[in-house]
# Entry
Amino acid sequence: MLVKFWGVRGSIPVPGPTTIKYGGNTSCVEVRCGKDIIIFDGGTGLRPLGIDLLKRGFGPDSKRSIGGGKTSMFFSHMHWDHIQGFPFFAPAFIKSNKIDIYGFKHLNVDLYQSLVGQQAFPNYPVSIFDMGGNIKFIELHGGDVIRINSTMVSTVRLNHPGGSFGYKISYMKKNLVYACDYEHFDGIDKRLLNFIKGADAIIYDAQYTPEEYYGTDDSNGRQGWGHSTWEKGVELAKSAGIKKLILFHHGHNDTEMDKIEKITKSKFKNAVAAYEGLEIKI
Ligand SMILES: [Zn+2]
Ligand SMILES: [Zn+2]
# Structure
């Protein structure tokens, strides 16, 4: 399993001189499992991924893919920072490209409605149905397990305003968890703990420092905003016997991220703060 990070930011893209090292694009992670490609979230990082997929000569088109692999997208939820890149996902404009989109229904809003709405007139010039690609929406429920050739993708509901889904990819006896966006509240979420137990790596929502989260930095705190901290990531990774902790959904500049990564590593050796272009073999 090869994981590549195309966008690591939370909430809003932040390009500029203070975010050069970690990158400014919002959430998008590519996971290659043999010939199959699984994409977590479609933040602005999806745009460079789409361009790269076309360059590589394969992508969400079973006819063009090497050896007939499949490409599937799994959305954690439909907040802007997780869908903004889709209107600019070049493979979706190519006729005959098959794109399977997985996600869940938000109360009475069907999975497809948020993506369709993002591109509805007058927000964007091309409707999702006119992009050209063969786009299929598959609605998930908490606890569902999806099989994509020899890869299994399991689902779990996460604490987040409006809800969010965490995913676990199981391939060749390795397990990778994508847990974003997620708020820990008090202690450890037992449902998440059971879901991730023994995984090889977890991509974890660590948007805030503990000081920001609890308001000990003279702010009003960030409790109830839907995100977690590096500290809770360490606690969860240790409790669940996770081998590697990958901090994600960043909310800080390069200098601050370096400090966050350093303190995390001092508590959990095998930790890394994700940056655009980072590749991890699992
Ligand atoms: Zn987010
Ligand atoms: Zn969110």
User: Anything to note?
Assistant: Residues 2-281 form a domain with the Metallo-beta-lactamase; Chain A fold (CATH 3.60.15.10). Residues 213 and 223 are 6 Å apart (CA to CA). Residues 77, 79, 160, 181, 226 surround zinc ion (ligand 2) (CB under 6 Å).
